[in-house]
Specification:
Blueprint (H helix, E strand, L loop, with lengths): L1 H8 L1 H15 L8 H22 L3 H23 L4 H4 L1 H6 L6 H27 L11 H25 L3 H15 L14 H4 L2 H13 L6 H25 L3 H4 L1
Length: 255
């Protein structure tokens, strides 16, 4: 608990380091972190052009669906595909400074959120282009983001500990993230699978996608999804923290 409390107390430091990490990737470039937004915008535009025709969807409706879906999915998938190396990559800092181990989890999590906010610029550009007015309903994305963050940090603690012990976890999670994207309603809509609805209903990623995507699309989220994702987030956080407590003493050896 001391490590958890210490990491929360140092959350501002973790946020500052996360900001420096994001800016550091694009240091000495002309556009800086805007390249994050440009890269995601190119993907959204490409998928909108190709798949709106394949699915017979309205191009404008499909464009805004992707402009929200891709950033949300990127946020969710990073907790799986990138977090396994959280402690491994911070080995030098861990050996040089007495900082709470979990601060390295928060550092990455805040970095993911910052990247997500960069990606949201695409949504607002699309809204302006399509003359879509924002509404107060979009503010529900704030508590939804908090739920996703709690769940993601829980998953992050678990995979960071396991990833420190088993180095194959990170590439395995990277492969899994690509598969899970195809199995989740990111590019396609849930109502496009009338027969195989079990793919959606049994997919936990769908619910965390929906809780954050729907408010940004100015759509309602079912109360049971709010409840289920909240309970799931707390459960994941507890499981992740338990894994950290169990593996804490061996982490130095694994690194």
């Amino acid at each position: 608990m001391q490590d958890l409390g210490g990491s929360i107390a140092r959350a501002p430091l973790a946020a500052w380091l996360a900001m420096d990490d994001v800016h550091g990737r694009y240091r000495r470039t002309v556009l800086g972190p805007l390249w994050i937004t440009i890269g995601q915008a190119a993907m959204v535009a490409g998928f909108a052009i190709v798949f709106s025709g394949l699915f017979g969807a309205d191009p404008q409706t499909y464009l805004i669906y992707l402009a929200v879906g891709f950033p949300v999915w990127t946020l969710l998938s990073q907790f799986l595909s990138d977090m396994p190396t959280a402690f491994i990559s911070a080995k030098g800092v861990i050996e040089s400074y007495e900082l709470p181990w979990l601060m390295h989890i928060w550092r990455r999590a805040f970095g993911y959120v910052l990247t997500f906010l960069h990606h949201l610029l695409i949504l607002f550009v699309v809204m302006v282009a399509l003359n879509i007015a924002p509404s107060a309903q979009m503010l529900l994305a704030v508590p939804a983001l908090a739920i996703v963050l709690i769940a993601g940090v829980g998953v992050g603690m678990l995979v960071a500990v396991v990833g420190a012990r088993y180095r194959d976890l990170q590439p395995a999670m990277g492969v899994s993230a690509g598969f899970l994207m195809l199995m989740s309603p990111v590019v396609w809509r849930a109502d496009q699978l009338p027969i195989n609805q079990w793919i959606v209903q049994l997919n936990p990623f769908y619910y965390y996608l929906e809780i954050l995507r729907a408010p940004l699309l100015q759509q309602d989220v079912a109360p049971e999804i709010w409840l289920g994702t909240s309970i799931g987030a707390v459960a994941l956080f507890c499981i992740g923290f338990a894994a950290f407590v169990i593996g804490r003493r061996r982490l130095y050896h694994w690194l």
